[in-house]
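Q: What changes when NDP is included in the input?
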Amino acid sequence: MNLFSLEGKVAIVTGGNRGLGGAMAYGLAQAGADIAIIQRSSGEPETVSRIRKLGRKCESYSFDLTNTSKIPQLLQEIKKEFGGIDILINNAGVQRRSPSIDFTEEDWDIVMQVNTKSVFFLCQAVGKEMLSNGKGKIINIASLLSFQGGFTVPAYAASKGAVAQFTKSLSNEWASKGVNVNGVAPGYMETEMNTALITDETRNREILKRIPAGRWGQPEDLVGVAVFLSSNASDYINGEIITVDGGWMGR
Ligand code: NDP
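A: The predicted holo structure follows.
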């Protein structure tokens, strides 16, 4: 299906070393894209060698996304290595859990910096390149907490609400210029970020009870939507936030 092919495309996936980002980076590579991974930690993640085994180019960049002022410099480096940027998946994110009454300023700031501020400025920096090419695909990873308040995660809910809103703002400005900006709101996915919920028997049971699909999501459940929103198949989809949640939001 050529409509879904990413042959010859270059994708940046933040947090593409592991978790949901790791699965999406690998999935995009299977669809034909070369991949630049941005991660916080140092060292080459296993995802890089897995992608290279597919015959695709893949490099990882250790970069703390809270350094927003250095983002343009990082992108120059990636462009030099890959020749251009066609797809950006803003996936990196952090979580901090605490009752709101005790929530610290430090936790608030880190969540907003990684989940919201860095996402906007990556969109801006990559958007410049895409607008000058007259094409590009940006996918921001939102959350069910873009729509709901969650429980003991006030900064996370605020940060993901903001991501959904500015995804629409950017889309309104850039849709007519060939750049698609969309979001994906994953449901409850089995990754390290959710260890606290998965290991809490009561919360785990409550969560599962509300998921019509009857199971936690797996990172691979996001591959289809990531490839779709990165490909020509989604050229007339703009400013949408697609939930991938086993039916949670419909309940
Ligand atoms: P993980 O905790 O498994 O992975 C987080 C990723 O973000 C890692 O790759 C990490 O890099 C990277 N990262 C974190 N902080 C920084 C930083 N300062 N600079 C650069 N990279 C950073 O998370 P998930 O895979 O579960 O989540 C991925 C995205 O999906 C997040 O935005 C999350 O909010 C969202 N999401 C997740 C859901 C879930 O149920 N898991 C549900 C809804 C949304 P490193 O490994 O180097 O630390």
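Observations recorded in class: The chain is about 40% helix and 15% strand.
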